[in-house]
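HUMAN: I'm a chemist; might I ask for a sequence paired with its structure tokens?

ASSISTANT:
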Amino acid sequence: MTYLLFAYFLALCLPLFIRSWHAALTGLRIQAIAMAAMLWLHGLHMEPTPIIALVDLLLFRAIFAPWYLKKMATERGVAKAFDLIPANLLVWTLAAILIMASFGFSTTLVGQFSRSLTHLGVACCGVLLALLILATQRAPLGQAMAVLTLENGISLFELHAHHHMEWVAQLGLTFVYLLTVLTMALLVRRLGTVDDDGPTHPADSAVL
């Protein structure tokens, strides 16, 4: 399980330093695949709720969401060079502080030698880094990826639980995620020319 959490962590952090929205969408895809593998390894994948969760993770989060956002971004001509967070030392330092704070919080919550330490630390990183992206992004595509990263972080928290919600509730959450993706993609399609390169672009004032 640790190697899956490590893969999730890399998929979360590396796109912050790679100037490409393709890398960010690939990161979202890897996060979803890693969570699906964790759910499968829990051994409860034959029950109704985990089956719905697996469909959500593999079909909607790993395949549909990255593909549809890519389609909308390509149609609107969003530049391939794309920063999830501003490429400066201050923001990178803030991201590092959030990562350290996440694992510090996890240690305080479950203890230094608990097996839950890594899981909760990575999940907390997902939530806090998503909020950092959301706070620093002006581009609709970047804001959309921040929201989906936040959704993945919350789902990783849920995977830590030893029980599953009713299948109807899981189905509702899957529907909400799909609706979120469609909404984000619509905003990317309408405001996709907005970017974060500076005030020289006429549409720079548009935000979600």
User: Anything to note?
Assistant: The chain has one domain: 2-191.
